[in-house]
Amino acid sequence: MQGSKRPNTPRTVATKPIVVPCPGCRQPSRYGPQNPWRPFCSERCRSLDLGAWASEAYRVPAQSPPDGRTADDAPVDPRH
Ligand SMILES: [Zn+2]
Fold first, then answer.
1. Ligand 1: distance of its center to the CA of 14 in Å?
2. Domain covering 18-59: architecture
3. What is the pTM of this model?
4. Which of 1, 5, 29, 30 could form a disulfide with 41 if both were Cys (CB 3.0 to 4.6 A apart)?
5. pLDDT band at residue 65, thresholds of 50, 70 and 90?
């Protein structure tokens, strides 16, 4: 009984990990399903970048007040 049962070498589908530079820290981060924070290298970088992006986005439409501080930041002076 000769089956053509040769050890079927699984095709090496060149699955070399895709590495991309982390947008947060510029370190090489693995871009793959095992990296839930891709293209970032870690959750930290992801949150950092999102935070930066958010503040950047918020900064655009906001016109800086003449005195350079936001009204929300400065509590009303009770002695005024
Ligand atoms: Zn990073």
1. 25
2. 2-Layer Sandwich (3.30)
3. 0.46
4. 29
5. low
